[in-house]
């Protein structure tokens, strides 16, 4: 070690320089608790710059306790465990990992070096890399997979405290008709950009610049970007309504069927006043007269736990009575029909060509008066047409 002293007027500056520091240990440890170490032997020469021989590039992969490296579930559990969270829906996270993330090769690769990012931001980045979303409902941390899915439930006029309102957004020049996704290439570790375009509009007029974290491959970056583009081009309807506590059966990201009582809408919502089983046929008596002139009449039921059945083909008995085949989705053994404290199931009578409004829940906000405000966006399976696509290259 050496010291230099510079005296200039009334100011004296002392600098200390470490030339070398070594020690002799009686017994060197082979490992350090909770610390990953690396030992390097570097041979240099006079052809290297003075700074080059002291620069080492390391591609480090974090090890997760009980989870495979780079997995989305491992990253989620590591972050939540480090926060001290113990109310975690581990079964759902594991199911999504085994059903989607692992088979599709979706991993999370990210260096969290921004101290300004909140824990919620990181959790959302992790799930977004897996084309999913993070859920925190009633203190339970979970995840949901975005994509083509069956509907979870129904909100009909029998549940709402105000009329269903539908807002339409007309196409305009301010809409994005292209998306550029910037990501880190897993081979070069440099920023690259994939261009998300549709074949009918290869040269868009307004392009969104979107930065994607945690993804190292162009194909997945392209798929996520095309999801955004499809919503910009096709998602035009927004629905708002309010219920009492019925909306609390659902979560953000659930697909619902929304119905109204507008005459001529090919949808009739009613209560199931009575139900009887004969063999494999279920006879239902409902509260509203049914219009059997609908094209290919169908029914779906909102069960007492808030869930909904698939479409079922009914048979007419009279204007207020119909029969349906008994299926496992009806969960008929769990129906409670003779308790005034339990509301009966709802039946949606409709045409096979139109089944209410398909929507994805974007917000459920409880109010101080005991009601819940529900906001939902239009759902179309075409939003996810590119979920298995490969990047075609620059199309502009």
What's the Cα radius of gyration? 30 Å
- The helix content, as a percent range, equals 10-25%
Strand and helix order: EEHHHEEEEEEEHEEEEEEEEEE
Principal-axis shape equals elongated
Total of DSSP H or I helical runs spanning 4+ residues:
4
Strand order of the largest sheet: 5-11-18-19-10-6
What is the typical, i.e. mean, pLDDT? 89
**Which structural class fits the helix and strand makeup?**
alpha+beta
Number of E strands: 19
Distance between the termini: 60 Å
- Please state roughly what percent of the residues sit in beta strands, choosing from under 5%, 5-15%, 15-25%, 25-35%, 35-45% or over 45%: 25-35%
Biggest sheet: strands, sense, closure? 6 strands, mixed
Low-confidence stretches: none
Q: Could you walk me through the main structural features you see in this protein, from its secondary elements to its overall organization?
A:
The structure is a single chain. This protein is 13% helix and 30% strand. With 396 residues, the protein is an alpha+beta fold. Among the domains are: 72-145, no CATH class; 178-235; 240-380. The strands form five sheets. It has a six-stranded mixed beta sheet, with no helix packed on it. A six-stranded antiparallel beta sheet has the order 14-17-12-13-16-15, with no helix packed on it. The longest helix is centred in the middle third of the chain and has 17 residues, at 218-234. It is elongated, with a radius of gyration of 30 Å.
